[in-house]
């Protein structure tokens, strides 16, 4: 079950988009309001990954590191949480987000799939303009 969490982080950093999609159920509830405001959304997993594809490749590197994943099982419902450090590098600048991820997983066939994810941002460091710069960089190269 913890593997599903690690798998999504590895997939994102290696731009293995199909692997990232396969970590999720068909739809996923996403709450990143502590980072970007707005409201939690329920969206198709391929739509979520498509959003990531529009800015993450604009960075030179990303590294999403999770501390040990703590798992709690209640029947067919699993919750998992971990501390995270997400480092995004563009040229010599960095944008670092630290906090905690909370996940909800459900058993789909023989595989645990992420159906809920919530980022609880604790700390942001570096150039907070980098996501926009990475997006512009990616759009200019297409």
Number of helices: 5
Broad structural category: alpha+beta
Compute the gyration radius: what is it? 15 Å
Q: Could you tell me how far the N terminus lies from the C terminus, measured between alpha carbons in angstroms?
A: 37 Å
Strand tally: 7
**Main beta-sheet strand count, sense and barrel state:** 7 strands, mixed
Say what the CATH topology is. Nuclear Transport Factor 2, Chain: A
Q: In what range is the share of β-strand residues?
A: over 45%
Relative helix content: 25-40%
Write down the secondary-structure element order: HHEHEHEEEEEH
Overall mean pLDDT:
94
Q: What is the domain tally?
A: 1
CATH architecture: Roll
Q: Can you tell me the CATH class?
A: Alpha Beta
């Amino acid at each position: 079950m913890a593997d599903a969490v690690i798998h999504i982080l590895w997939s994102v950093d290696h731009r293995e988009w199909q692997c990232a999609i396969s970590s999720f159920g068909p739809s996923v509830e996403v709450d990143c309001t502590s980072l970007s405001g707005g409201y939690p959304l329920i969206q198709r997993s391929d739509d979520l990954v498509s959003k990531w594809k529009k800015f993450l490749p604009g960075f030179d590197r990303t590294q999403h590191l999770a501390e040990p994943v703590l798992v709690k099982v209640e029947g067919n419902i699993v919750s998992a949480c971990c501390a995270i450090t997400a480092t995004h590098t563009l040229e010599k600048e960095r944008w670092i987000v630290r906090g905690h991820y909370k996940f909800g997983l459900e058993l789909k066939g023989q595989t645990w799939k992420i159906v809920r994810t919530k980022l609880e941002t604790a700390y942001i460091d570096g150039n907070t303009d980098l996501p926009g710069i990475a997006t512009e960089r990616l759009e200019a190269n297409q």
